[in-house]
Design goal:
Distance between the termini: 59 Å
Radius of gyration: 23 Å
Strand content: under 5%
Structural class: mainly alpha
Number of strands: 0
Number of helices: 3
Helix content: over 70%
Largest sheet: none
Shape: flat
Order of helices and strands: HHH
């Protein structure tokens, strides 16, 4: 691929991104909400949410432990 071809390729994808952004701006809020609700329900059905919650809780605990260690080292 030459530099010119690479520039043209990037330019085409830039145009695609612009069109997608415009379509998203024009999408009614009700449609966006239905899509978000469908994704949420799918995540529940796949069991993703409980795993994400467990990961978040573990991460929060790790951060708190780090802060405690820092406070003990640098009072």
């Amino acid at each position: 691929m030459t530099k010119k071809e690479a520039r043209e390729y990037l330019h085409r994808w830039s145009l695609v991104t612009q069109v997608l952004d415009e379509e998203l701006r024009r999408t009614p809020m009700e449609v966006k909400f239905r899509k978000m609700d469908a994704a949420y329900r799918m995540a529940i059905g796949l069991g993703v949410l409980p795993r994400m919650k467990a990961l978040k809780n573990r991460t929060v605990k790790e951060v708190r432990l780090r802060w405690l260690r820092l406070k003990m080292i640098h009072p």
